[in-house]
Fold this protein.
Amino acid sequence: MSELFPSIPKIKFEGPKSDSPLAFKYYEPAKDKDSLRFAMAFWHSMCAGGRDPFGDPTAERPWNSVADPMEAAKMRMHGVFELTEKLSMPYFCFHDRDIAPEGASLRETNKNLDVIVALAKDLMKGSPTKLLWGTANCFGNPRYMHGAATSPEPKVFAYAAAQVKKALEVTKELGGQNYVFWGGREGYETLLNTDMKMEQENMAKFLHLAVDYAKEIGFTGQFLIEPKPKEPTKHQYDFDAATCYGFLKEYDLLPYFKLNLETNHATLAQHTMQHDMRFARDHGILGSVDANQGDEMLGWDTDQFPTNLYVTTLIMYEVQKNGGLHSGGLNFDAKVRRGSYKVEDLAIAHIVGMDSFARGAQAASRMIADKALDKLLDERYAGWKSGVGASIRAGKESFKSLEAAMLDAKTANPSDFGLGSGKQEYLESIVNRYL
Ligand code: XUL
Ligand code: CO
């Protein structure tokens, strides 16, 4: 197939002084590719056209005039390889329905998928681009209006199971390093019509079936759950990192799953992304990142490309403290604004996202090397290393012994407790120095 994006050249690293929109200022592919593990989201970059509730698609894309859905699907698959290669982006991610159209039956749908997967496999042979993760779209079709694994109808559960079975097979076929479950419509609109306990039990059952089938076919990629608190349902079951952790633990799924955390989902849950990342890291379930950002003034999932250096720095701080993301990566689950309708906008959006993370990674690694935050953190909790602190941590104290120690102690002022300053403003000034 001839070049689909002739206006986009191979993007080169030109350094921070460059004012070329089609050049990297911070991301140096040869140096950063393996630690940053960027991925392109097929659904946004190859499929989305900019439709919103008030208007039609705006995006100028090479497949716009192609009527046959299979022909358009082939072009898009060529497109993702062309653009990831030009951007030195090592990975892509997809939903089954992003890459191939639905047919009249599941059998026909699977056939369509096989054709496109064969093409992807072929293109992979001559390309450095690999699959970070695959997933199934179990939310778009009307059959999923009440959920998939949490649908009140077992036949819908069965259809979703068949769909995920196939998605696991093709993810394995393409060497996918992870498999993602984002909860689509697994949630509810009103408890008046919802058996929440049964729905959650069914969801756990579904995930166990997936684990069993992965073992059966020898898929060894990492399973990931992607939390989100709301949208499309009013209440999504996989609300945030802590909720997912509780769910996985309750249903004996913790050994098989980690989390794919998305910045805009964390902020919709009223957390910073760093909060969810820290929670996941502390619990050994930080798997991968959907790298985007929301708008502080809008309460929905705007999926913007990540440009906020403060946020990318603190994300990379957690990633590096985690010893990297292992099989995970930084997937740009982000879409260009509807008005950014040119192909160049798509390339520029990825470039600024990659540069923002590369710059964040540089700042984070300098902060870590200098122990810029660690020193003060250690001092703050030093009391737990000796005396009564160490004794509490070692389980040697009781309410009675602690009362005995406090009854006549000097406690009139905070300083009598040895309390130091929280130093928030000072710490913020330190982070600013590294940005
Ligand atoms: C939806 C979302 C999904 C998942 C994959 O908000 O983030 O695109 O990343 O299903
Ligand atoms: Co996502």
Q: What stands out?
A: The first strand starts at residue 12 and ends at 13. The two ends are 43 Å apart (CA to CA). Residues 95, 135, 180, 182, 226, 228, 262, 290, 301, 333 surround D-xylulose (ligand 1) (CB under 6 Å).
